[in-house]
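Model the whole thing, not chain by chain.
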Amino acid sequence: MMNARRVTSQDVADAAGVSRTTVSLVLNKVQGAKIREETRQRVIAAARELGYVPDAAARALVSRRAQIIGLVLTRRPDQVTSDGFLTQLLDGLLGVIKQSGLRLLIEIVDPEHQKEAYLELIRAKHIDGVILSGPRYDDDALRTLEEEAFPVVLLGQLPDTNHYSVDINNRVASRIAVEHLLGLGHKEIACITNADLSYTAATERLIGYQEALEAAGLSLNDELVGYGDFSPESGYAAMMELLGRDVRFTAAFIASDEVALGAQAAIRECGLRVPDDIALVGFDDLPLSRYMDPPLTTISVPAVQLARQASTLLIKLLKGEKFYERHVVLKSPLHVRESCGAKLSN
Amino acid sequence: MMNARRVTSQDVADAAGVSRTTVSLVLNKVQGAKIREETRQRVIAAARELGYVPDAAARALVSRRAQIIGLVLTRRPDQVTSDGFLTQLLDGLLGVIKQSGLRLLIEIVDPEHQKEAYLELIRAKHIDGVILSGPRYDDDALRTLEEEAFPVVLLGQLPDTNHYSVDINNRVASRIAVEHLLGLGHKEIACITNADLSYTAATERLIGYQEALEAAGLSLNDELVGYGDFSPESGYAAMMELLGRDVRFTAAFIASDEVALGAQAAIRECGLRVPDDIALVGFDDLPLSRYMDPPLTTISVPAVQLARQASTLLIKLLKGEKFYERHVVLKSPLHVRESCGAKLSN
DNA sequence: ACGCGTTACTAACACGTGTTAGTAGTATAG
DNA sequence: CTATACTACTAACACGTGTTAGTAACGCGT
């Protein structure tokens, strides 16, 4: 039915009355090549006329560049459903990558069953470089990649490796969040993690919480810790469980705004008020957070910036520019709104 | 430093003491091929031993299949930042696509400057098929693709074309949403669109709103219509503007939950209450909507299902199975919560 | 007339795979 | 004993491009 046979560079060459080599030289604007201006125009005209677009596969095969960057997420698909952080990353990544004429391929890897599945993606040279968001301690593939010197940039960090990374300081940010609550007079502060502790960020944030309490001379209580799983549902469930336990707390640090959204609803449904009964501090500063009721006090993670820097860095690596700052750390200040009960000055 | 030279099928052939053809036949499990079991095992062992992974580009070149599906979004990157619908799509798409051994490439196209940029993606055979989310009336590239019989599945609909599509009935859903408000006694109902009217879904939803009013014998008032732009910010701004105008309304239909989130905050900041002063009905039923305060009454769009069906359909098209139902329409019932002020029976 | 350098190209190889056509070797039928 | 059929492979081409090495044509100095 269709099949108007592909237009190849040979067709362009024939139309312009030159060789295929010349077509390639002209269209790729090769520097050293001496081509008469008149010929050049003739080739360009012929290419436009025929609607010639170079074949990506052929080009990738010979140039050994797929012109594709992979975004690897070690999650189950359903953990992506309500991920407000991911969309911010996409904003940043797509903007930068597009500008460089590259494409973004998104690969999701089930952390339980096939942690290392993305290695095949790389071996097949489907992608030129990887941005990995949310590294996990148990990701052995990442260590393998380090040996192979494959271009990788982490959005997050993985101890014991020397991968390029762009991140915030999760531990310090959490400390600041919790210290803010301590400063408001709270002594019993619960915590709900953003994800399970295989994720380095989740562990770091929990440690930050613990450090803040210890520094204030308070003892840790496992009963005050709940576990989230990226989603509002998990926050709802975790908060419900905390409220059902035999512990009292007047504040909670929730290491993800998405999770905090559910937790806040749970508090509300139990007839309690934020911040009067329970003060809340979140983490991420998603676009939605300022529209919550009350607006959520949270750690402001510059997600779009992180993604921009990570992709910019990766693109430089692909161009062969080495020896950059290996670990970029962006600022993540506390954004005080109303959920923590602090008096806003202005 | 690195460069352990790629392992090719020739290397496997040498190691196994057979020809490259045999390697190909074995590893691709070609049906008609007669291969002795012992040889087969030898090849498989050699391949595993050497860590052989076929080169994606070479394979794509010869097989004319990139094994990649493109997800095209006609938006600016910053319009993706807080798109809770997109993450649901990714959930559905990634699940299905992964299972079929394909990959997902995500392409974002600025609707103002380069509407048709994704045509190049297709011409270059970078992708085998396209899922296009949120078609626009002014998308001429889509009409071109129809002539070329390139595999396309729309998440949404585009009049005057016969592309495969998976969608809900936006117009009817909106009518139902607005009729619900009418049934609660509201006579002055505002509307905020989910996006500008170039998007077919935005227009359809607005028409549904208008049809409901007209069917109830009410007159339309342009002053009661505001325009959103995917984001909570836009909903906040639009609602603020509506509240500042010289019109009264006791309810609002907001054609996107994401936008409704901002609108609800605006209402709150003006000292008004939902649903007592202004009843609210949204559209999408994002995961976050049930956690809003009050929980949002909204049209329940089965986003994950839409994505699953769209990708399943596209994959079938790629396999050459034609003649399927061209336009799949899924149900999108009203999900009554509290923001509309209806008494909940249960 | 000859060598030499420059200009404006082109022939031919390489990239790594899938696949078609073919070929020795052995079993089976007449 | 010969013709046929089948088994278990392999040689060689094709996919469409980037690039290296090379070549005619021409001007120029001696």
